[in-house]
Design goal:
There is one protein chain. With about 350 residues, this protein is an alpha/beta fold. It folds into two domains: about 5-125 and about 305-345, Medium-chain alcohol dehydrogenases, catalytic domain (Quinone Oxidoreductase, Chain A, domain 1), CATH 3.90.180; about 130-275, Rossmann fold (3-Layer(aba) Sandwich), CATH 3.40.50. The chain has helices spanning about 45-50, 120-125, 125-135, 170-180, 195-200, 215-225, 240-250, 285-300, 320-330, and strands at about 5-10, 15-25, 30-40, 65-75, 85-90, 100-105, 110, 160-165, 185-190, 205-210, 230-235, 250-255, 270-275, 310, 335-340. Strands 3, 4, 5, 6, 7, 14 and 15 form a seven-stranded mixed beta sheet that branches. The chain has a six-stranded parallel beta sheet with strand order 10-9-8-11-12-13, sandwiched between helices. The chain is globular. The structure holds NADP nicotinamide-adenine-dinucleotide phosphate (NAP). NADP nicotinamide-adenine-dinucleotide phosphate binds near residues 238 and 333. This is GroES-like protein.
Length: about 350
């Protein structure tokens, strides 16, 4: 019999979670078997349970943010060896998901964890960073700017203002850092005031209370910059934040969204609303992410990119459903929740 591991199963569409056993998969060509030490939670995980989106095959294993140690190397891989500490962006297929003790990682979307970073820090990076990157740099799922890891991209947008709605969110915190590397200035973010110092430490130049009215925010932004705002990244993308973001945009600006658009684009599309998709497993994103992975390991090592702050949930995989419930209730603020699958009893 093949070796068994523990996994957290969403038992049926919109059903309940339960820990059970499944076989440890074998890595194929271009894949790594990773023993997971830390898995981060994301809003999409509770949304899948709540509304049945994205996943069709049940019982299903969720989670895409993974950090662990390479246990076995598939054919054709020269860049990783057994024992490497890695972080990777998984997918919603049971063999590649995060909420289990072992997973298959696509080597192309995997990076080594530098010595100065823990598994929990590393697990907070993949989805948030990839979503921030896609919105800013993808031609298909974003506004197609030149990424800072590509030739000529570093600080290319110096002097251009950017507004980030939801600067304390996981996605928002990586948008701020990438905006800094792209040279945007000023970098204006909205958040709860208690996160101001943290958000400024990532590179925001101005932080405004996320509860300000659209008019008050517009007045505050116009005091900071007289240039038209051509890029608003709405990391939250609720109808209310989209409306405020849209109202801040200059005549030819783009509003990048993490959820489907609820704002109505202008006739003739002078201003654009662009929903992003931070998934490396789709063909349209592959080259973008293989470019960023080449640089990401170095950037997290030298502190250029800071992982999210995190809180470790108790009880291994068993602790995840309560964490997702806190997220659903909007009780997670300026922090990423992570779980330790190996601690499952
Ligand atoms: N399209 C994609 O590929 C993709 C990928 C990843 C995520 N997403 C979506 O993007 C959204 C953000 O994900 P995430 O992981 O970054 O979330 P998260 O970190 O869990 O979000 C929590 C944060 O949201 C902030 N927030 C809530 N309402 C806000 C508002 N009205 N204005 C400003 N900030 C607000 C809170 O800020 P304060 O604590 O400061 O109040 C809190 O820090 C989710 O809807 C998620 O499903 C989409």
């Amino acid at each position: 019999m093949s070796q068994q591991q523990k996994a957290l199963f969403l038992q049926s569409k919109q059903g309940q979670f339960a820990v059970g056993s499944r076989s440890i998969p074998k890595p194929g060509r271009g894949e790594l078997l990773v023993k997971i030490y830390s898995a981060a939670l994301n809003p999409v995980d509770y949304k899948i349970q709540e509304s049945g989106i994205f996943v069709e095959t049940y019982p299903a294993i969720l989670g895409v943010d993974i950090a662990g140690i390479v246990d076995e190397v598939g054919e054709g891989i020269r860049t990783f060896v057994k024992g490497d500490k890695v972080f990777t962006h998984g997918s919603f297929s049971n063999d590649q998901a995060a909420f289990q003790q072992f997973t298959l990682a696509v080597a192309e979307f995997t990076a080594k964890i530098p010595e100065n970073l823990g598994y929990d820090d590393a697990a907070t990076i993949p989805l948030g960073f990839d979503t921030a990157s896609a919105g800013l740099y993808s031609d298909v799922y974003g506004i197609g700017l030149t990424p800072p890891w590509a030739e000529g991209g570093f600080k290319k947008y110096s002097g251009n203002p950017i507004v980030i709605m939801g600067g304390s969110s996981s996605v928002g915190s990586y948008v701020i850092q990438l905006a800094r590397l792209s040279g945007f200035s000023p970098i204006i973010a909205t958040a709860s005031p208690k996160h101001e110092a943290y958000i400024k430490s990532l590179g925001a130049t101005h932080v405004f209370d996320r509860h300000l009215s659209a008019d008050d925010l517009k007045a505050a932004v116009s005091k900071v910059t007289s240039s038209p705002v051509e890029v608003v990244y709405d990391a939250i993308s609720l109808p209310g934040t989209q409306q405020v973001g849209w109202s801040l945009l200059g005549p030819k600006g783009a509003l990048i969204l993490t959820l489907p658009a609820s704002v109505k684009e202008d006739e003739g599309k002078e201003r654009r609303a662009i929903p992003t998709f931070g998934n490396p497993h789709v063909q349209q994103n592959k080259s973008l992410y293989s470019g960023s992975r080449a640089k990401l390991g170095k950037w997290v090592e030298d502190g250029t990119i800071k992982p999210n702050r995190h809180e470790v949930l108790p009880n291994g995989l068993e602790g995840i459903p309560k964490g997702l419930e806190r997220m659903r209730r909007g009780e997670v603020s300026g922090i990423k929740l992570v779980a330790h699958p190996q601690d499952t009893k």
